[in-house]
C-alpha cells in the first residue's frame, strides 16, 4: 500500500511540474514578444530578395569548400611517392585549389596574382606565405629547368595547406551582404521619393 501511495504522490508531483514548466515557457514567450524586431513590409520583401540572391552564392562557397577538401586529399595521396615531379605538379595543383576558393569568395581579379592583391592581412593571416608559395609556383610553371629540393617543395605545400585551412575555416558573412543590399534599397527608395 505504501508503494502505491508514493507512486501516486510522485505522479501528481510530475504532472504539476510539467504544467508549471509549460506555463513558464508560455509566460517567457509572451514577455519576449515586445523585444523582437518587427520588419516593415518593404524590409521583409528586401530581406527575402537578399536571401534569394545570396543563397546561390553561399551554396557555391560551401560546395567549393567540399570540392577543395577532396582535391587536397587527392593531392596528398599523389605526393606520398616523394617524387620530385609529383611535388612540382602538387604545387601547381595546390595553387589552383586556393585560386578556386578565392573565386568562390568573390575576390576580384583576372588571375591568382590579382586576387591575392585584393586581399589584405586582416582577411588572411597567411597572406605573405601564400604570396611566397604562388611566386615559386609561377617559377615552376614557367621555368621547366628550375630544380628545387624536395624539402623546399614540402615547405611550399605546407604554406598552401595553411592557406587552405584558413579559407576552409572562414565563416560566410551573410549579415554584411544583407545590410549592404538593404542600405542600397533604402537609398534607391529615397531617390525615387525625392524625384516625385
Keywords, separated by commas or semicolons:
single chain, 196 residues, Four Helix Bundle (Hemerythrin (Met), subunit A), 2 domains, 79% helix, 0% strand
SSE string, helices as H and strands as E: HHHHHHH
CATH topology of the largest domain: Four Helix Bundle (Hemerythrin (Met), subunit A)
| Fraction of residues in helix | over 70%
| Category from helices, strands and their pairing | mainly alpha
Q: In the CATH hierarchy, what is the architecture of the largest domain at level 2?
A: Up-down Bundle
Query: Spans of 5+ residues with little confidence (pLDDT < 50)?
Result: none
**Tally of strands:** 0
Write the topology of this structure.
Elements: H1 2-32, H2 41-78, H3 84-104, H4 112-117, H5 127-142, H6 150-169, H7 174-195
Helix pairs in contact: 2-3, 2-6, 2-7, 3-5, 3-6, 5-6
Amino acid at each position: 500500500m505504501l508503494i502505491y501511495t508514493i507512486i501516486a504522490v510522485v505522479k501528481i508531483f510530475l504532472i504539476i511540474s510539467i504544467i508549471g514548466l509549460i506555463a513558464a515557457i508560455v509566460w517567457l514567450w509572451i514577455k519576449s514578444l515586445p523585444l523582437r524586431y518587427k520588419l516593415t513590409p518593404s524590409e521583409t520583401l528586401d530581406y527575402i530578395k537578399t536571401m534569394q540572391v545570396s543563397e546561390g552564392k553561399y551554396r557555391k562557397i560551401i560546395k567549393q569548400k567540399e570540392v577543395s577538401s577532396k582535391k587536397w586529399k587527392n593531392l596528398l595521396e599523389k605526393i606520398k611517392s616523394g617524387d620530385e615531379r609529383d611535388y612540382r605538379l602538387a604545387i601547381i595543383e595546390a595553387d589552383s585549389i586556393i585560386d578556386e576558393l578565392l573565386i568562390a569568395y568573390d575576390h576580384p581579379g583576372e588571375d591568382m596574382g590579382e586576387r591575392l592583391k585584393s586581399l589584405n592581412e586582416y582577411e588572411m593571416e597567411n597572406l605573405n606565405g601564400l604570396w611566397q608559395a604562388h611566386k615559386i609556383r609561377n617559377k615552376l610553371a614557367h621555368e621547366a629547368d628550375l630544380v628545387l629540393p624536395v624539402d623546399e617543395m614540402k615547405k611550399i605545400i605546407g604554406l598552401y595547406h595553411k592557406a587552405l585551412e584558413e579559407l576552409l575555416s572562414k565563416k560566410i558573412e551573410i549579415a554584411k551582404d544583407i545590410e549592404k543590399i538593404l542600405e542600397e534599397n533604402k537609398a534607391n527608395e529615397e531617390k525615387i521619393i525625392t524625384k516625385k
